[in-house]
Amino acid sequence: MGACTGTACGTSSILISIIQFVLGAIVAIATSVWIENLRKPKLTLSILPPSDAHYTNRPATDARFLAVNLLNKPLPPIARWMSRTAALQCHGSITFHHLNDGQNIFGSAMPIRWAGQPEPVPILFSIGNQHVSIADPTRFSLNPRVDVYPGEGEALNIAAKFDSEVECYGWSNENYFSNPIWRHPNWKLSSGRYLVRVTVLSAGQNCTGVFRLIADVPRGNFRLEDARPEDRVYG
Question: How far apart are CA 174 and CA 88, in angstroms?
């Protein structure tokens, strides 16, 4: 009594097989999606120590440059048997905002300059007694792109302050062609405190970070700070 026989037993076996198949397919799909999401680039932005420079025969004698680091995080140790995807063709923009209301100061965005790339200046060489300059097109892009591999980072410039000047400037490849040189009027910031929003786009993921720019201090104290919970940017 109660034993499964005939058609009823066959139907029950078929239903169990279908359920097992569906559950197996769901688990396989969920695992594939989880692995794919895990392998995607995971980008973060963090403040780098200020970089001080001393020059001769340049548009400034002393300068301080502020930058942040774009990191593509490595996979967690438990998943190191896989490899995270590189963040390809990373590019982006920076906007500067008033600290009190978060509004965009310039009404536009400044293209990112990757600190590790060559300065966009002509290559100079001599042929006999003649001095020749050639513009390298790979240096002159106003919105250059880089690839960031897992566990590696790329520094990107934010702003610069020169000598004993009160104002500072957002720093991009455009500054090398400005008048006055290095001091692009479109990115000139008076003494004060501001919010900076950095947006990086890549083929695999987008990343945004907000920081405080402390620009109402002498060059030696010119710096970036992490944004506070109340900081908001608009526009």
Answer: 23
